[in-house]
């Protein structure tokens, strides 16, 4: 069985479905009450309640199930704790990763896939493809990429010393069913909800003003989940770090056009920058060559699928 921490969450639930479709059984670990999400009702997955920062609750999962692989998506981030204990929250996030590797060693797990982020490339100013061997800026820009860079470095050390294969997956901007609303970093989910509801987009929850030309590697969550499943299941991987994304830059204007094609009544405009930022995207050559992954959803297909899911009464 594959343990997916955070398996009932946004990317986690789609990873579980992809693993199920590949013939694998999964255990979903959640801090909240262990109830299978409605959109996984047809997937025979087991639920376990526990916290990756609590070693005993992790070990209990292994006593009840034979775990052969782990996809670690449940990382307690410092900004989500409302008690102003930033140091304690960061420690719990690191404890969660270390505990996951600890039980992997105890259980004889062959491979642990750990979610990292496209945000580790923050501060790279050149346009074009972002490859895994690109030197990363080490200054602090935001809690998420800072934490992920630390965990990537620890993953390399622990893999070398423990013999466990630890794979870091640098996940791109991801949107689709079950996604965050608002996503603070890019407007695509808010735009999709507005198109489905035939309303004006509320972009007030974004960390920064979005512009029409702004772009990023935007990947539909069903593709993201499938890529993570492939990184867990592919028999041999030649690298320890993989970009997970669409391999192309998608602008906010392109997202709006795709949503308008799906919902002709949807109209919205974003301001233009005086000087557009360089277009960047993830180089996904490694992922494609080692796992055979190619995205199934372009922007138009993603927009149509997401709007249809929202109109069916989901995500409200």
UniProtKB/TrEMBL annotation:
TM spans (from-to): none
Source species, domain of life: Bacteria
Pfam families: Epimerase
InterPro entries (UniProt xref): Epimerase_deHydtase, NAD(P)-bd_dom_sf
Domain NAD-dependent epimerase/dehydratase: 2-245
SUPFAM superfamilies listed in its UniProt record: NAD(P)-binding Rossmann-fold domains (SSF51735)
Family the UniProt entry places it in: Belongs to the NAD(P)-dependent epimerase/dehydratase family.
Protein name: Epimerase
């Amino acid at each position: 069985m594959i343990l997916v921490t955070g398996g009932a969450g946004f990317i986690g639930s789609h990873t579980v479905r992809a693993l199920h479709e590949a013939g694998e059984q999964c255990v979903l670990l959640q801090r909240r009450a262990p109830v299978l999400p409605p959109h996984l009702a047809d997937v025979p997955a087991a639920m376990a309640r526990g916290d990756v920062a609590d070693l005993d609750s992790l070990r209990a999962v292994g006593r009840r199930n034979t775990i052969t692989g782990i996809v670690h998506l449940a990382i307690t981030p410092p900004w989500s704790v409302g008690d102003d204990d930033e140091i304690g929250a960061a420690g719990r996030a690191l404890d969660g990763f270390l505990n996951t590797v600890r039980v992997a060693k105890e259980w004889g797990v062959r491979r642990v896939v750990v979610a990292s982020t496209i945000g580790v490339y923050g501060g790279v100013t050149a346009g074009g493809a972002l490859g895994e061997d690109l030197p990363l800026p080490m200054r602090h820009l935001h809690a998420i990429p800072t934490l992920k860079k630390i965990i990537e470095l620890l993953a390399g050390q622990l893999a070398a010393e423990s013999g466990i294969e630890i794979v870091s997956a640098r996940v791109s901007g991801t949107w689709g069913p079950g996604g965050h609303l608002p996503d603070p970093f890019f407007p695509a989910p808010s735009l999709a909800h507005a198109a489905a509801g035939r309303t004006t987009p509320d972009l007030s929850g974004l960390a920064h003003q979005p512009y029409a030309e702004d772009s990023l590697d935007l990947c539909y969550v069903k593709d993201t989940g499938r890529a993570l499943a492939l990184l867990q299941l592919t028999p041999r991987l030649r690298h320890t770090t993989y970009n997970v994304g669409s391999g192309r830059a998608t602008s906010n204007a392109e997202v709006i056009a795709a949503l308008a094609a799906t919902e002709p009544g949807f109209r919205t405009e974003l301001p233009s920058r005086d000087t557009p930022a360089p277009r960047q995207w993830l180089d996904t050559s490694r992922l494609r060559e080692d796992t055979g992954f190619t995205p199934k959803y372009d922007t138009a297909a993603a927009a149509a699928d997401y709007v249809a899911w929202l109109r069916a009464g989901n995500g409200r």
